[in-house]
Specification:
single chain, alpha+beta, seven-stranded mixed β-sheet, three-stranded antiparallel β-sheet, 5 helices, 15 strands, globular
């Protein structure tokens, strides 16, 4: 769904969702400059009804107009043409670590590719992107484009510098598909065998800063994307948590920091926190057995 943020919403079917081929109307309070595109989980939390169409009537007092001033008025003055902020959360990935430890040998034997931690983070992120369209978007000049697919860039450190090959349609892949794509893209990128068409077109990027031992980072946006997620190193440390009887206990857990840098022209801190908390919930549940294809 593409909107021109210089004036009234201009809806295009170029990236329209199948559930809303005419686009997602922006709802702003009449008489107010505040405009907010709600994630579909926030708009339709229970029924998961189709998103409203452009021709659908709006509730009384709402309008479809959207302007650049609706986001942050000071940005129109050119003071911060591309303001970037970073939100960081802590995630307990003990269940994921245990699942990987007991499955990695069988995974390699069946799928012919190594099972690292990164596919679990990419899987959780791509699932969350479906409910947080602001995070899976791009800004070109004064035009915002929302996507109904997830083309995930994977930052790869090479002797020639940092490159970002793109995993197309990552949201349609299971963990074996994600793992195979990451390993293949990373190897070909480091060996200078990646094609130029595979280095563009991403809608969201993940960078594994923890591979170098960093606890967390404030990754720089892969423009024109609106967000990039950084994965820190996984460390075991004592954590206060609830025991079986509900009392506080100290346990050794596998912990990681996730960071999300975002373009503040479109994404607010609340949007970033909601996205990261959805990723956190998925990872801490650790229910990825069905996604391993074993």
């Amino acid at each position: 769904v593409r909107w021109d943020i210089r004036g009234p919403a201009a809806l295009s079917s170029a990236a329209a969702s199948p559930s809303s081929s005419a686009g997602v109307p922006c709802l702003s309070s009449a008489g107010s400059s505040v405009c907010e595109l709600c994630a579909r989980s926030q708009v339709f939390p229970a029924s998961h009804s189709p998103l409203p169409r452009a021709e659908d009537p709006l509730p009384e007092g709402l309008t479809r107009d959207i302007e650049v001033y609706s986001f942050h008025p000071f940005l129109s003055l050119g003071l911060h043409p591309q303001p970037q902020l970073t939100t960081v959360i802590e995630v307990d990935v003990t269940k994921v670590a245990a699942l990987r430890a007991r499955s990695k040998d069988a995974f390699l034997a069946k799928h012919g590719t190594k099972l690292t931690f990164l596919p679990f983070f990419v899987k959780a992120a791509t699932e969350a992107l479906a409910y947080h369209p602001k995070i899976n978007a791009t800004i070109n000049d004064k035009e915002v484009t929302y996507f109904d697919y997830e083309h995930v860039g994977i930052a790869v450190d090479t002797p020639r510098g940092l490159l970002v090959p793109v995993m197309k349609n990552a949201g349609e892949k299971d963990i074996p598909g994600i793992a195979a794509s990451i390993n293949d893209l990373a190897a070909r990128t480091r060996d200078s065998k990646i094609g130029p068409d595979e280095l563009s077109g991403s809608t969201f990027t993940v960078t594994n800063t923890g591979s170098g031992g960093a606890l967390f980072d404030t990754p720089v946006l892969n423009m024109p994307e609106t967000a990039i997620m950084g994965v820190g190193t996984i460390v075991k440390r004592p954590v206060v948590m609830k025991g079986a009887d509900g009392a506080d206990v100290i346990a050794i857990r596998s912990m990681v920091y996730l960071s999300l840098s975002y373009d503040h022209r479109l994404v607010d801190g609340g949007d970033a926190s909601c996205f990261l908390m959805d990723v956190k919930k998925r990872l801490e549940e650790g229910a990825f057995e069905a996604d391993l294809g074993l």
